Amino acid sequence: MIVDEKKATIAMAEEGYMQQLRSKATELLLREEWKESIEAYSNFITLCENQIVHSQDYADSDQLQRLRKSLCLALSNRAEARSRLKEFHSALEDCDLALVIDETHFKTLICKGKILLNLNMYYAALECFRVALRDPQANGNSENLNGYVEKCKKLDFLSRTGSLDLSDWVSNGFRGKSPELAEFIGSVEIMKSEISGRGLFATKNIDAGGLVLITKAIAMERSVLGGKDLSEEAQLVMWKNFIDKVTDFVRKCHRTSNLICQLSTGEDEDSLEVPDIALFKPGTELKNKSKNNQPSETEEIDKGELLAILDVNSLTEDSVSANVLGKKNNEYYGVGLWLLPSFINHSCYPNARRLHVGDYLIVHASKDIKAGEEITFAYLDPLSTLHKRKEMSMTWGIQCRCKRCKFESEIMCKQEMREIEIGLERGMDVGSAVYKLEEEMKRWKVRGKEKAYLRASFWSAYSEVYRTERFMKRWGRRIPAMEAVVYSVIDVIGGDERLLKIQLEEMKKNGGGGGLVEMEKALKLAREVYGKVVKKQAMRTLLELCVATGE
Ligand SMILES: C[S@@+](CC[C@H](N)C(=O)[O-])C[C@H]1O[C@@H](n2cnc3c(N)ncnc32)[C@H](O)[C@@H]1O
Questions:
Q1: Closest atom of ligand 1 to CA, residue 343
Q2: Is 174 contained in some domain?
Q3: What residues make up the domain containing 108?
Q4: What is the pLDDT of residue 548?
Q5: Ligand 1, from 191, 195, 196: best to mutate by most atoms within 8 Å of Cβ?
Q6: Do residues 218 and 191 share a domain?
Q7: Does residue 293 register a pLDDT over 70?
């Protein structure tokens, strides 16, 4: 009896201390001092848990109930602070512990719902908000909660079906924040690639314009271009900030860290393991297996390895096979890391393009893709000569051995081809160069795809001729019609903004908007360039923008 009384007195003293600790933690939380508040709540939680264990035998059930309630609230508040620091996984653990104590704890359900939304687990988030809506406390807050429910429903639908519609945003001139999108993985898998290492492959036929995937950046950094280009110093600052952001993310999220470890450092790619695509679906936990198959808790990425991974896999928004929607300022450009797109290899006759919407990257088919075909996009401009492509591919550390490069390597050895290339570099009449190239192709019986490869390589000469009245007067009747050339090039390199633009300009020249058939053709081409992301009317807005901007 005396022992129990002593225990109770000590417990009372501890309770006083705990009260103080809790007030301090709450104050820090209100002041948004997240780190300090987490520390204070952690101390409180440890004491509270100890008290619950040790006071089972003497405390009355009310006292125990009070302790459990305090513990639940403290876990919920620590979860809030952790989620503000983007430590989502540990925050989620706190929510789950709090919900074991009280499965309908209003504050925790909302906090957990928001965390799950951040982790792209839309359906689980929806369940949290739905349960929270049933709580009487939701009465003053139901508008907000209903907003979350609707958002979760929309994102869950998008992530399951890939039916994306950006029409309103595009038609409203990209006003407001860029739309919140969902992670979506279409009919694709990662497999060994003949190009190099692993690649992304279609498991079903994908029509031109069809979505391949939507994914949010692990981290992005944007910078405003001073003149046309970013100064070397600004580039370094941007790169450093980007590395810091990725490092921070990796530190906070073990799952991301393990996924990043699956990416190539550019070394010995053919011996790399082929990860299961399911690992990239939100919410899938990784079996702890490292690249060389050794079990590990969480893979620690060493700084050097992380830098190599970023070097090989980071993408810039302004690349040739990319379009940026809603960019307010033409003068900025961004760099980012997106996990699944990092498995997409380069091709000089690509079949996919990417669209950037905020921090999201959308990959779509830029021509029809057959089941089993590898999905590729162009790291470098496919509308440039072999010589230029080779130069550019050095910066990527790749030596492209695709069919197009192989064919062009052989044909460019011919004296006549060298003359055309050197001639153009030295200011040769572009019309005469196009005429000569077309004649030589006839003479050498170059047909079909191979003819289109060369037309794509010398596209800048073709486009100058077709766009200049003077050249067309002189050469127009001796060279193939523009449309035939454009469509043969599209056939090999897929939709491209420059090809779309020249088609639209031609339509305008021939009487304003062109006929219905012309318009349908232009819309089809636009879907190959931008993907099926908007309805017809909004696509027309994109067509207008295409004519107004770019080359
Ligand atoms: C973004 S990763 C693509 C996925 C990579 N193959 C893998 O296994 O993880 C880029 C790297 O893939 C390789 N690569 C991509 N396209 C290539 C190509 N056309 N020819 C040779 N290597 C290529 C290069 O090593 C390049 O640094």
A1: 4
A2: no
A3: 2-161
A4: 85
A5: 196
A6: yes
A7: no
